[in-house]
Amino acid sequence: MNKPFHQGILIIERLEENGHEAYFVGGSVRDTLMNRVIGDIDIATSATPEEIQALFPKTIDVGAEHGTIIVVTSDQESYEVTTFRTDGTYTDNRHPDNVTFVKSLEEDLKRRDFTMNAIAMTKNGKILDPFHGESDIKRRVIRTVGKATERFKEDALRMLRAVRFSSQLSFSVEADTFLGIQKDRALLEMVSVERKTMEMEKLLKGQGVKNALELLVTTGLYAFLPHFGEKGNRLRDLAKLPVYELKSRSALWTLLVIVLEMDDAKGFLNSWKLPKKVSKSVQENLNVINQYKEKGWAKEIIYRSGLEQSLEAHQVMRVLGWDKLGSSIQIQKIYNSLPIHSLKDIVIDGHDLIKIAGEKRGKWIAMLYQDLEMALVHEELQNERAALKEWVCNWLQKYDQNY
Ligand code: ATP
Ligand code: MG
Question: What is the largest CA-CA distance in the chain?
Answer without folding.
Answer: 89
